[in-house]
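User: Working on a comparison across species. This one is phosphoenolpyruvate carboxykinase (ATP) from Anisodus tanguticus. Can you predict its structure so I can line it up against the others?
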Amino acid sequence: MASNGVGNGEFSFDNKRRSGLPKIQTQKTDDENAVCHDDSATPVKAQTLDELHSLQKKKSAPTTPIKSPHVFGVAVSEEERQKQQLQSISASLASLTRETGPKVVKGDPARQAETPKVQQPTHHHHTPALNISDSGLKFTHILYNLSPAELYEQAIKYEKGSFITSSGALATLSGAKTGRSPRDKRVVRDETTEEDLWWGKGSPNIEMDEQTFLINRERAVDYLCSLEKVFVNDQFLNWDPNNRIKVRIVSARAYHSLFMHNMCIRPTPEELEDFGTPDFTIYNAGQFPCNRYTHYMTSSTSIDINLARREMVILGTQYAGEMKKGLFGVMHYLMPKRQILSLHSGCNMGKEGDVALFFGLSGTGKTTLSTDHNRYLIGDDEHCWSNHGVSNIEGGCYAKCIDLSREKEPDIWNAIKFGTVLENVVFEEYTREVDYTDKSVTENTRAAYPIEYIPNAKIPCVGPHPKNVILLACDAFGVLPPVSKLNLAQTMYHFISGYTALVAGTEDGIKEPTATFSACFGAAFIMLHPTKYAAMLAEKMQKHGATGWLVNTGWSGGSYGSGSRIKLAYTRKIIDAIHSGALLNAEYKKTEVFGLEIPTELEGVPSEILDPVNTWPDKKAHKDTLLKLGGLFRKNFEVFTNYKIGTDSNLTEEILAAGPNF
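Assistant: Here's the predicted structure for phosphoenolpyruvate carboxykinase (ATP) from Anisodus tanguticus:
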């Protein structure tokens, strides 16, 4: 505001600008062509709000040209194709006691103006409908292969505990179960599986009969058909086009649908056109419990696989990992039948096309070491090795999030964005920023995202035959060398053993190492006897000239408590030397007890740590601990000793001889 000073210290306002606001110019400007920058535009064409909303969305053209499918040379109309697709879904949801499946219609019931009328066949004489039921009168709405954006909307609108985090990911809750329930998993034992599968001591396969499976299937299907809407995903497993499997997932939650959208391979619109009948179907009725009075049930949770029917039923758990790992188990059965080896491993590829497989249990550094910015990621968890090379089974990654930081795991951190499912994480109420250190819900917090969210992922996720097979162990006893070169028999022995040592607290609070063995580095998921997978691995390694390595990412200079963890920088140098081939040219010597070949020197790694005995101040303690671990390996292997590979027991004896010798 302008003011004039007056001599006596008073102020007087300038009368010309008394209002204190500049005068608005209303005269015509000199510039005849000046553009008026207001927001005026012609009014919308819509007459009602509904019409306006319909203008907002447009039908997008498919990204791939759609071939018109032909049945016996006759082009099928879009309407007919939609009808066939719905018939296929209805057949999937059919009860086994009623002749037909439910009446199904596509789309969200909340947006349906009215339920479509069903054309009744005209009969000349009246037939009383004896088997009609309430469920037979209603429609089940099918939400088919929805996009992530649509699934976000469904989750936020209808599923409590669904939120968008500050990075754009969808935070969800899996209910009471925040991990897998291996004791509640059942496999149907019938003529198909009696001979093929591994049953009995040490096996993850707990049996059930066909009748009990059908009771649980009926319960799941009845539950899903009683809902107003169900989610259906039609997707693929295995990036190898010659050996991919078509899977259909029927679920009741947007969270489950988005999880599987990320974890399985996403079909193009063209591939969906020709999808047809799935090879395997999952019925996820996880919100509904199984009946405890049903034979073989030990809790209200049951995960049941029927390999003859190619079906899986989930009752009483909403943990999404059950679907992922259930399908992995199925691949462990289907693939070896085609002479393809299914593997619980990470896999990456160098710029020269050299592929490495990484095996290791939780905490061994499998994810950290297979994620390498100088190499392409083929996959982080599940792979197949066929006559063509390796292929990822999945279309996504399922990463642990506990204590995740941008510094330590930048790729995973940056992958947690729009489209990613965040399971059971805790976030700040106002900003929605996730606190990855918070274990309030569970320690098993997870992120599921499409593999293309990783910048150096190789798409399609396939590669040539592996050059190196790396077995990772975190040896908290501190007696395994940082790296050893394995012969074929040793590779089989250590692959079947699947060793790592966890550091677990004892009752009086003292922490000490506990040996953990998981056959084939994934005992919970294998279907056949471990020696069958080991024999296939050895055969493929021999045929394609791959080298086996045992890498210890655990302790050196003493067990946990007295020694220290081998530096990650040293382990990375070892892995780099394996990839480059430099380690093949090193000088080697043999260790006692385990008989491992260890290099005498390696660039970038102190020579004294390469042989564990050098780093232990107490040599007797070293020898005692080494013998103790050797004894644990032997005891674990007893389960496998009475098993012949085919009719030949020589191979089993050869594997046994490759173990600790004392």
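For your comparison, note: The longest helix spans residues 619-641.

User: Helpful, thanks.
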